[in-house]
């Protein structure tokens, strides 16, 4: 009988603590790695969370253009904040490293993808410029 009373008391204490302190919602950080910070914030807020910059490297880009290189759930609960917080690590040095600009190594997946995208955009711009060139009439 005494063990049953202790068990009931423990359950009541746990329920009281949840009412008093609230219960945190368990949510995993969304997959925003590789996205610009501004897009990552939108995705996190749509999921009901709050984005927090935990680390930042570089100063070449505006914060909204910085690339998210890591995202994780914050390991604490703020009493004044009912939404879950997602910590972000940002690369603001540039999308990929060159001889004159810092950024993600082209040996990394993020760097390779960024360089390929930049090369494709440069090729499209060159093609458009060639199409706009007109030859003089004879």
Automatic annotation (TrEMBL):
Q: Annotated region Disordered: where?
A: 102-138
Task: Give the range the annotation lists for the signal sequence.
Answer: 1-28
Q: From start to end residue, where is composition biased (Acidic residues)?
A: 121-138
User: What keyword terms does UniProt attach to this protein?
Assistant: Signal
Which protein is depicted?
Answer: PASTA domain-containing protein
């Amino acid at each position: 009988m005494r063990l049953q009373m202790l068990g009931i008391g423990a359950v009541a204490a746990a329920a009281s603590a949840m009412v008093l302190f609230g219960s945190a919602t368990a949510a995993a950080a969304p997959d925003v790695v590789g996205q610009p910070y501004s897009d990552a914030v939108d995705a996190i807020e749509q999921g009901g969370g709050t984005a927090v910059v935990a680390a930042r490297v570089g100063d070449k880009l505006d914060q909204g253009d910085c690339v998210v290189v890591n995202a994780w759930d914050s390991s604490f609960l703020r009493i004044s904040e009912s939404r879950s917080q997602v910590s972000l690590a940002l690369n603001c040095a540039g999308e990929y490293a060159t001889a004159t600009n810092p950024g993600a190594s082209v040996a990394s997946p993020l760097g390779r993808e960024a360089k390929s995208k930049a090369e494709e955009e440069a090729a499209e711009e060159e093609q458009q410029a060639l199409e706009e060139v007109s030859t003089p009439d004879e």
